[in-house]
Every structure is written in C-alpha cells, then in structure tokens.
Amino acid sequence: MSSVRRLHVVSGKGGTGKTTVAAALALALAEEGRRTLLVEVEGRQGIAQLFETEALPYEERRIAIGPGGGEVFALAIDAERALLDYLQMFYKLGGAGRALRRIGAIDFATTVAPGLRDVLLTGKVCEAVRRRGPDGGWAYDAVVMDAPPTGRVTRFLAVNDEVAGLARVGPIHHQAQAVMRVLKSAETAVHLVTLLEEMPVQETADGVAELRAADLPVGGTVVNMVRPALDSTAATPLPAPNDLAAALTRAGLRDAEALTAPLLSQGREHVTRLALEATQRDELARLDLPVRELPLLPDGVDLAGLYRLARLLRAQDW
C-alpha cells in the first residue's frame, strides 16, 4: 500500500456508505508499526457505532488494531472545543476562552458564521496531519477524514481559501494558508464513494468537477456495495416460457408453469440491472480516476465485515 498520501478525505452521497469506507480505509492503512487517525467532523458518532464502542470524546483514542498490526485512533471533532483550542493557540486566552464558552459566545459565533465551523474542523484535521511526535517523526502516518457529503465537500475543504482572502494579515490569515497548503498538497487525496446507480454516479461526477475546479486533489472513486457477479447472464437471452417450463419439469419441479412467470420476471430485472451497472461503470471510467470496488455484505457491516473490507482495501494502492 502506497505511503505517499497522508491525508485521505472520504466523501460520498448520503446512503453510499462513506463512513464505512472511511473506517475500513483507516484500518487498511494501519499496517505493521503504523498509526492511523480516523476523524469524524459531522457529529453523528458513526465511527463509534461501526467499531461497536462508546461515543467518541473530543480526544484521540485508540479504537482498533489494523489487519496489518498497526494502531487506529479516532477523534470526533467538536467545533466549540476546536474554537477554544484555536483561541488558546493564537491568542492565549486561557480562562477567558472558557468564560466565553460559559456565556454562549462560542456557540453563537459558530452558528452565526457557518464557515467558521468548517475552518475549525479542517484546521484541527490538518494540525493532526502536520503534528510531530517526540522522536521528530509524524505523530500519525496517515489521517482519514469522514467528510461531509459530496454536494458540500468542496466548499467545506475550500473555505480556508476564502478566509485567507478576507483576513489578509495576522494569525488567522497564516493559519488558513497553512491549512490550504495541506489540503492542496500531493499528500492529500479526496476519495468519493458511490454506488452503481444513476444518481450517486452523477453526483460523483459533479463532485469531481467541483474539486478539480477548486484545485483540490482527487484521489479516486470507491464503488461500494457491489453485488456479486454471476455468469455472463447479460449476454445470455432468457428462455421462452414453454422451454423454461419444460426444463423445470425435467428437473422434477412441480407446478413448473406457475414458476415460469416469476422466474422470467426476476431474470429480466437481473439483466436490466446488469446493463444499468455497466452504463454507470462507463460513466465512472470517463472521470479518468482510479476506481476501486467493495462488495455488498449480505449480513450488513458489523465489526467482522469492516475488517473484511479493510483487507480488500489493503491490497490496493492508496
């Protein structure tokens, strides 16, 4: 698995399983001796649910060991706490910052200025990417962000460009510039999760165009919940009703004629679905990006299923 990318931003249309993919990727990147940080920015505690653990606090906590023996830490970023960190880092407010929290000024600021919330969230993630450990090496070998959905991710990531333009001097300007240097660097990749369905694929294509227009690095697409491929049924014509009924009778099935219509109906639906999926694969290929696929897990995504997905991702280049 490639170690060039250090920040992996995972987005996707709602319902595509972007949080699952982000968690599986964090596990996959936790190779022997490596440390990965998995970050949640939407306050849904989806990571805690996937790893079957208690709600994540505003602190980095080890939650798993990767298939390769490395460690996975997780963090649920709280915008209010991040603002306190920011005020202490740049303005040394200390107790004054805590007083602001008590009177509700921080909640007021992040509510009135939604862009400020995104600045704080992206800033906290990029701080983890740049942080050094006691030995001078990176504190984390990789950081994976479970980002907002595709329709919002470009504005979420690019907000610091706007802030740097508004605040032309001072610590806010320099912080915004530092964040954008990380987000636009070769160490960062934005991955978009999709399904082989028309709406998610179209939203993925739109998202790729927006990211490229904002000069943000697109890593690739992840096609999630792919149904297992059967024999080449798409190219095999369905039998005539009489032929199917005769074959069912020869197989010893009773009421063969009653079974014929529903079986042919299912067969037509299957062929139609394969044709639609082939069309969506063609659309994704036109984006000229790496395409990775993950299977549909029939029993849903429990902890064992998450590790299975991680092993599949680990075999691919990231």
From TrEMBL:
<dbReference type="Pfam" id="PF02374">
    <property type="entry name" value="ArsA_ATPase"/>
</dbReference>
<dbReference type="GO" id="GO:0016887">
    <property type="term" value="F:ATP hydrolysis activity"/>
</dbReference>
<dbReference type="GO" id="GO:0005524">
    <property type="term" value="F:ATP binding"/>
</dbReference>
<protein>
    <submittedName>
        <fullName>ATPase</fullName>
    </submittedName>
</protein>
<feature type="domain" description="ArsA/GET3 Anion-transporting ATPase-like">
    <location>
        <begin position="8"/>
        <end position="180"/>
    </location>
</feature>
<dbReference type="InterPro" id="IPR016300">
    <property type="entry name" value="ATPase_ArsA/GET3"/>
</dbReference>
<dbReference type="InterPro" id="IPR025723">
    <property type="entry name" value="ArsA/GET3_ATPase-like"/>
</dbReference>
<dbReference type="InterPro" id="IPR027417">
    <property type="entry name" value="P-loop_NTPase"/>
</dbReference>
